[in-house]
Design brief:
478 residues; alpha/beta; Rossmann fold; UDP-N-acetylmuramoyl-L-alanine:D-glutamate ligase; 5-stranded parallel sheet; 17 helices
């Protein structure tokens, strides 16, 4: 196995701007691993306008940076310790004296000068969408909170209790690949838009990001899924490990790891390409999933089915795991996506929480005419679920719960809390896990729906499946 090429970039990085991104992208292209060193407050001195920890977090949030670290020693010592194959500095340093050159060349490395390609349009989009350079505009639903007697302090208290909740997540692991492109114009041969790729970024999506959100929000998460015998599968495994998720991934050599590509330009998705198999997994792999699910559920507070209908959750497997969870009194939450594929959310029964879109509910109930409340109640009754969160996209979510001592059933609505979404992919995943965690720690369905809606509002404010953190969620309500 060939040795991986390590590339190093260093700097203060008070604010990550397009120039930094161009330099880092160029550096990434020079090898296999991009390392970025952030000078400590002591080393940077008066040039450190932002505390070192915040500067580190800013660089770490850049998806194509493999390793970011703070260094508190002379750069020569850093180079001697890390021994990068390539050190990249900005073009403006090329005609200056560079003390690093002697150190790098001594052990056989190279010093390269470049500021990267000047692709301002796409890089500005990349900066805005992926690296959190602006705060999302999210507002709390005051009228809804007043109707249900919910205070910001109560929501903050619920979120703080996510630590220690034990969660078992089952479903399809998906690798989401975002290819950001710069538009070159229209082809002269045929009416086709011509683009050139600027950056490729991968995220763990599907049920994998449901597990990622859970872990980021403070829960102790176990994840059971199937991957292919390929590089995408290994990427998924390593990502889950970095996110401190206990994973049980069966390798199916007959299918690829599901990969979904999105080609984007000027903040819009131009094309989606899916690489997948939708055949049900074998009996052997079902037994693998069932065995590990039974083991994990012996010590779990919450079971989450995150179904993307790519064959990972055959009905017999779902029924057996559900039966085991119900017998142990474990709370169940489920979602079944029917976007570019056909699914049936009603196959998940006895749940505390079911979170379909309106379309998914209508497919399950074979209804195009029922009003939303009637539709939600029919689905709730059929599946013997306690609560339905009916997702309406930009219209928010319908919150529907079963009979109470006062009424036959009760319904309310939360409008969309982020009216300027950047990327709606993954909104439902964050809603599912955040709402379910809130229910486990004692939230009413009204409180849980609000927590889930806030999580969704944060998620759609950026591109890609970046796991939520408890700090992010708390910052909206405090």
């Amino acid at each position: 196995m060939s040795k991986r090429t390590k590339v190093l970039v260093t700097g203060n990085f008070n604010v990550v701007h397009p120039g930094h991104l161009r330099l880092m992208m160029f550096a990434k292209e020079q090898g296999d691993e991009l390392w970025v060193g952030i000078s400590s407050d002591r080393i940077a001195g008066s040039q450190a306008q932002v505390a070192e920890q915040f500067r580190l977090e800013g660089v770490s949030a850049i998806g194509f940076v493999d390793h970011a670290f703070i260094y508190d020693e002379d750069l020569a010592a850093v180079l001697d310790r890390l021994r990068p194959n390539v050190l990249v500095k900005g073009k403006e340093h090329e005609n200056s004296y560079n003390v690093e050159r002697q150190v790098v060349e001594k052990y056989g490395g190279r010093l390269i000068f470049s500021s990267g390609e000047t692709v301002f349009s796409s890089l500005d989009i990349l900066r805005f969408e992926q690296f959190g350079m602006t705060s999302p505009s999210i507002s709390l639903p005051a009228d809804y909170m007043k109707r249900h007697g919910i205070s910001s302090n109560r929501i903050s208290e619920l979120i703080s209790q996510f630590h220690g909740v034990r969660v078992c997540v089952l479903g399809d692991l998906i690798v989401d690949e975002y290819i950001t492109c710069d538009s070159l114009g229209m082809s002269q041969e045929d009416p086709t838009i011509v683009v050139t790729p600027v950056s490729t970024e991968r995220f763990v999506g599907g049920a994998g990001v449901v597990a990622g959100h859970g872990s980021g929000l403070g829960a102790s998460v176990s994840f059971i899924s199937v991957i292919g015998d390929d590089e995408d599968g290994e990427f998924g495994r390593l990502t889950l490990e970095r996110q401190k998720i206990r994973n049980f991934l069966a390798v199916d050599k007959s299918r690829p790891t599901t990969r979904k590509q999105r080609f984007r330009s000027s903040g819009k998705t131009l094309l989606r390409v899916n690489h997948l198999s939708q055949n049900p997994i074998s009996r052997e792999l079902q037994d693998f999933a069932l065995g590990h699910a039974i083991e994990v559920l012996e010590d779990s507070d919450l079971l989450v089915f995150s179904d993307f209908n790519h064959g990972c959750l055959p009905q017999n497997l779902v029924d057996q795991i559900t039966s085991h969870a119900v017998s142990r009194g474990i709370r169940i939450a489920a979602d079944s996506q029917s976007s570019s594929q056909i699914g049936n959310v009603s196959r998940f029964t006895n749940t505390d929480l079911l979170t379909p879109t309106e379309r998914e509910a209508r497919i399950a109930m074979h209804s195009n005419e029922d009003g939303l409340v009637v539709l939600a109640e029919k689905l709730r009754s059929l599946t013997e679920s306690k609560n339905i969160l009916l997702k309406l996209g930009l219209e928010g979510v319908i919150v529907h719960t079963g009979p109470s001592s006062k009424r036959e059933f009760v319904t309310d609505r939360i409008g969309a809390l982020n009216r300027s979404p950047v990327d709606v992919a993954g909104a439902g995943d964050s809603l599912l896990i955040a709402s379910a965690l809130a229910r486990v720690v004692g939230a009413s369905i009204w409180e849980a729906a609000l927590v889930g809606s806030l999580a969704s509002a944060i998620q759609v404010s950026r591109v890609g499946n970046i796991p939520l953190t408890q700090l992010e969620l708390q910052s909206i309500v405090q």
